Amino acid sequence: MKKNKKKDPRFKIAEKEAWIGIGLVLFNFIWWFGFAYGMGSEPVENYQFILGLPEWFFYSCVVGFVVMVILVIIVVKFFFKDVPFDEEKEGGTPKQ
């Protein structure tokens, strides 16, 4: 088997973007878990409400969703690259 075969540069980009996606998922889970179990573990009598929702639910689910949508938009716009999925010939033109 040939060892000097070059790795497709698209795989490097895909790996980087996959790690960014994993980071976003971990951030989302930590955000959700921290607010849901950090604020939601009190007795119900001590709950505070925002827009009719318990405070822990509002911050973990409503605000967390908005934060994640904004983060995903920023990450995709500034860190992800548009990669063609066509195989290229040596001259740089796509195969047909």
Structure description:
58% of the residues lie in helices and 4% in strands. A two-stranded antiparallel sheet has the order 1-2. The radius of gyration is 22 Å and the shape is elongated. The longest helix has 31 residues, at 9-39. The protein is mainly alpha-helical and 96 residues long. Strand 1 (49-50) and strand 2 (53-54) form a beta hairpin. The chain has helices spanning 9-39, 55-79, and strands at residues 49-50, 53-54. The chain crosses the membrane at residues 20-37, 57-80. Keywords: Membrane, Transmembrane, Transmembrane helix. This is DUF997 family protein. Pfam families: DUF997 (PF06196).
How is the topology of this model organized?
Elements (H helix, E strand, L loop, with lengths): L8 H31 L9 E2 L2 E2 H25 L17
Antiparallel strand pairs: 1-2
Helix pairs in contact: 1-2
Pfam families: DUF997
Organism: Cytobacillus dafuensis
Keywords: Membrane, Transmembrane, Transmembrane helix
Give a brief rundown of this model.
This is DUF997 family protein. The protein has helices spanning 9-39, 55-79, and strands at residues 49-50, 53-54. With 96 residues, it is mostly helical.
Which key features would you list for this structure?
single chain, 96 residues, two-stranded antiparallel ribbon, 4% strand
Q: List the domain count as a whole number.
A: 1
SSE pattern, N- to C-terminal: HEEH
- The residue-averaged pLDDT reads 87
Q: Quaternary arrangement of the chains shown?
A: single chain
| SS-derived structural category | mainly alpha
Give the number of helices: 2
Please report the total strand number as a whole number: 2
Give the amount of beta strand, in percent: under 5%
